[in-house]
Amino acid sequence: MEIQEQYTGHVQPGGAAARLRLDALTITKISVGPMDNNAYLLTCSNTGDALLVDAANDPERLADLLGHDEDRPRLRTIVTTHQHPDHWQALGSVAGQTGSYTVAHPEDAHPLPVPPDREVEHGETVQVGDSTLEVIHLRGHTPGSIALLYRDPSGRPHLFTGDSLFPGGVGKTNSAEDFRALLDDVENRVFAVLPDETWFYPGHGDDSTLGAERPKLSEWRERGW
After folding, report:
1. Consecutive H or E run containing 149
2. CA 213 distance to own-chain centroid
3. Tens of pLDDT along 98-108?
4. Which residues pair with 51 in a beta bridge?
């Protein structure tokens, strides 16, 4: 598989993956499936253990992302950010092939094709090798949507938002009440506590930073759902 080493946050559907190398963690982004879903492979530099954010589709491409060499990353964990089917089409296949431990929020666990080995709540953590990811529950897109936060000791925070936050707005909601809940959580649990340099990785499309999106928060609220 072709992997671009100059990371911009943009990947093409069916195209090359893109890799960002941090001191302790490597992040590899790939677009899979007909809905341009992003999947993110996080690999601990010290241990070689890996975590996949959303086994969304194309299990063969996700397997190729891991590689086939003896020193390839060991996929230990798959986190599903929320219950919508486009984010778990490859979950059963990849978990079955690798024996990975599966993780999701309890309120989104029932629709998944593989019952989570672990259900996580807001404020809990998930390990990828020596690195820690914090679970942030963002209610509204679905009842159990979660984001994962990696606080890089040597740089900026990195936030994997699923479909709860995109460049240009929060994720789709089904009611005005759900929209208010999601925007409240995004404001209070993300923008209020994380700095502008935080880089975030959505479930579809390009990445952005909190600083680029923060000035638009009032516009999002006025625009409504």
Report:
1. strand 146-151
2. 18
3. 999 999 999 99
4. 42, 77
